[in-house]
Amino acid sequence: MTLTYRLAASLLSLLAALAAPCLAGAAPASRTCHLPGSEEGLRCSTLAVPLDYRQPTGPTLALHITVAPAFRESARPDPLFVLAGGPGQAGSDVLPVLNAMFRRTRATRDIVFIDQRGTGLSGKLDCDDTTLPDNLNDDEQMAAVHACLAGVSQPLSAYTTEHAARDIEQVRLALGYQTINVWGASYGTRLGQAYARAFPHAVRSLVLDGVAAPDQVIPAGGRDGQAALEALFRQCTADADCNKAYPALRAEFDGLLAKVSAAPVPLTLSNPRTAEPLQMNLTKERFLSTVHNVLYSALDARRLPFLIHSAHLGRWAPFVARRNVATDLAGEGGTALVLHMAVICAEDYPRMTPQLLAEDARNSFLGGSRVGQLIALCKSIKVPAVVWRAPSPILAPALLLSGALDPVTPPRRAEAAARHIPKAQHLVVANAGHGISALGCAPRLLREFLDAPQKPVIAHCLNDIPAANFQIGSAGPHP
Questions:
Q1: What whole-number distance in Å separates Cα of residue 83 and Cα of residue 479?
Q2: String of DSSP letters for 166-214
Q3: pTM
Q4: Quick check: 3 pLDDT over 70?
Q5: In whole angstroms, what is the distance from residue 111 CA to residue 113 CA?
């Protein structure tokens, strides 16, 4: 950012501060930091914000901010704020996307990652993994989670999307930006929309990847998950090699689901991570969550027929190895379970009507089991309900990105959100699942949109993203 831009931004920020004082106080001092997921030194700072904005002079919490400065000195004054998903992911958890998605954008703009309150380095609210070992059955696991939630001392009513949106505004003011661009993924799209509605003067543009509709009840995703699984079955049948290798794929899946539904499957095998002996009970919930998680990635989903067939033959090691992938890659940055529950129980649980629950369970391989567990947990922690309000229009230009195979935020969710965003452009990638911004030409399109958000995005290149090959054997996908 040039000196001229910095002076202009500082003056405009001062005017904004006079109009809406920064509750957090002075701009935070930054320091060079080296965080997992980034090889370079970035700028980190900590900002004190009110724990509860209804009590501005009450307790505060420390919000962690990571800034990747623009490459060019003549950078634009409007940065890109990155909002992670979950709820429960932190900005510092997703730093690997800096080069994968935002390298082109960073040429001319600062990229700002915020650890949402209750995640990552902003006072992470989580359960101790050692209290949830793999040898627990579903009832024992639920009891362990109940015990974890019962031991939380923080007021969970302070960890809502509304409070997180107000945190974003405090960061904008503290860092001296007049307007910002917002990129959100998955739950981050809910947070991004909430911020744009609460502070419309501060938002230059929005990029929403894997869009959560304003009225969407996040955990009630049985219909979308089933649609993604059905699409995978059809694609395997239509693929000569996949159909030849797994001619009874649907029946094998149904058989496995019936087996784990009847009773947990005791497994004794070598730990796929350490090769040490491993004993675990594969419960229905663990089986279903693994299948659902695999469907998030279109590339990963092409391995699912192999995993199902191997388990059908009694070889559970590939399935268990895939189940461990999220943990292997997460390190210390896994989803903050308690924060996740705080948001979902306050904002989604109150909107779970009997009609929605019936729809979620009907014709869904998930069968409403996760929702049933969630209801029991929400009843126990008794977080005050957040009153849902009909969405007001978002007038900022917005780019909405959807994967046609997404099992949680498919294109229909973005279409519902776009009804309240008059300047929305919606791009759908046929061969993609949950998350578009890192695929093919998408990083270039992000830069083009941010440079001129009022112009139509020419996105024919997204049609060139191919479908991945199915995995036919242990050696991996066929060529």
A1: 37
A2: HHHHHHHHHHT-SSEEEEEETHHHHHHHHHHHH-GGGEEEEEEESPPPT
A3: 0.89
A4: no
A5: 7
